[in-house]
Amino acid sequence: MVQQIGLLLQETSYSKNIRCYGFDMDYTLALYKSPDYESLGFELIRDRMVSIGYPHELLRYTYDPSFATRGLVVDTKYGNLLKVDSNGNILVCSHGFRFLKGEDVHNYYPNKFIQRGDTERFYILNTLFNLSETYLYACLVDFFTRCTRYSNLINGFQHGDLLMSFRSMFQDVRDAMDFIHDTGILKERTIKNLEKYVIRDPKLPVLLRRIKEVAKVFLATNSDYMSYKFHISSSFQPGGAKPSWHSFFDLVVVDTRKPLFFAEGTVLRQVDTNTGKLRIGTYTGDLQHGTVYSGGSSDIVCDLLDVKGKDVLYVGDHIFGDILKSKKRQGWKTFLVVPELSKELHVWEEKKNLFEELKRLDVFLAELYTKSPPAGLQVLTYRMDMSYGQMGSLLRSGARQTLFASQLMRYADLYSSTCINLLHYPFNYLFMAPPVLVSALLLFKLLHRKKHKLLKEADYNEPEEAEHEDAAEESCKCVSR
Predict the structure, then answer these.
(1) Where does Mg(2+) bind (predicted)?
(2) Would the annotation count 250 as a binding residue?
(3) How many CB atoms lie within 10 A of CB 415?
(4) Residues forming the active site
(5) Fewer CB within a 10 Å sphere, N or C end of the chain?
């Protein structure tokens, strides 16, 4: 098993400058077993959909972990699941479980492009919790497309006077997901079978203890006060002393309502740890160790811990709620947890021969200077993509970066499959950003060499030369960004 070690992506920094480490809970400190946990979430929201009136035939569907990946975009107008790049160019398109190609994609999107800014129509499924609802939505579209009782329309399905629009179906799925969280059904089912759904990692308390020796540590989670998660996360060897999980943190804040937490926030209250209920009034005192708080804001956290934005490294799994907002609004350093990296690296190791063949064909293509890649390259690229799952890699589609990958590169200072990998580094370690400009220069040289070779084979054409220079300049800009 290959471990993914964190890498600094934005700027060079000394970890010794970090005076405070913050952690999210779900999928960061509380680690869930995949695909069992996603399958549980799928079953609960599927059953909820049936209970509110959706056809009982939906109960035949079971969760398939090979289909969905994070970072997909739902088109609520046409019911499609889209994998796009940072500019909105469509890389993969599916309608239910039918993958659309060529003319079918152009019928929906003439330019193979979407306006991601249209948030009323397009919804980005960026979290690991989204995997269950992503698959359920595909099941709904698949079922109604096949069901002879319903007529297929461009914006949904018709049955008599009843219109099932793609937008309303997606909203029902979102409401079902909120329902299993808000009512505590998911929590109850998880508690009943902790061994099946929750990972006990004995290295986690070791990491938290080591961090606490050199810096302050806080927990800021959107979850309510669920003590079972904390006890699981602080598991020790059988028979060993088991200190209170409170001792690992200088500050614990639940119900933070991120990303609001990184803006104006909410009222800060104390939590009665015996009952889980909130105490009345707003807490305005100094930090009390061993106390659990609810709500508040990132500004309040910094005040209580006496730290500033650049002093903080925040670790979380949510690219938007944890990473983007903490960096843009507070200037915190960021560490994105991407559990899927373990699989990405495993595929890379297992299919190394395919990578080598792709590299060989890339060189061959560069020598030909042709616009259309050879058939062998297309076949190998497809085989490589399918090694990751039906939607391909989380980070790439062929040679192109996905939207998720571009967000990761832009907003995460560090990223890794697990925060436990911090144990591999001393706390005065220098994380060095990769020299991106070197790649840009190499690309410029390649394009420059290509241009001169073409000029030797054809008459001099000034407009054509200018066009090549513009292309080279634009390519370098893209790489530099």
Answers:
(1) 24, 317
(2) no
(3) 23
(4) 24, 26
(5) N
